[in-house]
Amino acid sequence: MRRLLNFLYDSAAALAALFMVGLLGMVLLSIASRQLHFHVPGTDAYAGYLMAAAGFLALAHTLKRGEHIRVTLLLNFLKGGAKKAFEIWALAIATLLALLFAVYSSKLAWQSHEFHDISTGSDATPLWIPQIAMAVGTVILAIAFVDELVLEMMGQRVDAPTGEALRNE
């Protein structure tokens, strides 16, 4: 099961990276079209869709790597059972919020499909298409939070080392 979950998180991150490359392509196309005096309609909208897709699909992978911003001020004062209880409480709340986010983003994509909702830009893209990436990303994030909660309750959760998040500064 662990290998399957890690594959899911890594696959979503790889897809996010692919969307980032697509975003780069859209930005370069937009720049080139301005310099060469031709217009490609919808490049701004598609760049936005690709950026949103990359961000949402990378959420679970980022969580599992300990790269999400955490406020540990209170947590650093707690020890033993109190610290574990607080971690479980925080993860339970985060799991609930992630599940709600997944349900409502999936519902949004479904409703956009059902109502044939299209973007207001010149591209007239059916909105359910870019919203699928948001729905998939939030579902995978919810799975990752459930995974973290179960690992914490079983005492198998590994925290990022102190100062690990600062390594890129």
From TrEMBL:
One of its GO terms (cellular component) is plasma membrane. GO terms for biological process: C4-dicarboxylate transport. The keyword Ubl conjugation does not apply. The chain crosses the membrane at residues 12-33, 45-64, 85-105, 125-146. The keyword Transmembrane helix applies. It is a multi-pass membrane protein. Residues 24-150 form the Tripartite ATP-independent periplasmic transporters DctQ component domain. It is found in: Cell inner membrane. GO terms for molecular function: transmembrane transporter activity. Keywords: Cell inner membrane, Cell membrane, Membrane, Transmembrane, Transmembrane helix, Transport. Belongs to the TRAP transporter small permease family. The complex comprises the extracytoplasmic solute receptor protein and the two transmembrane proteins. Part of the tripartite ATP-independent periplasmic (TRAP) transport system. This is TRAP transporter small permease protein. It comes from Acidovorax delafieldii 2AN.
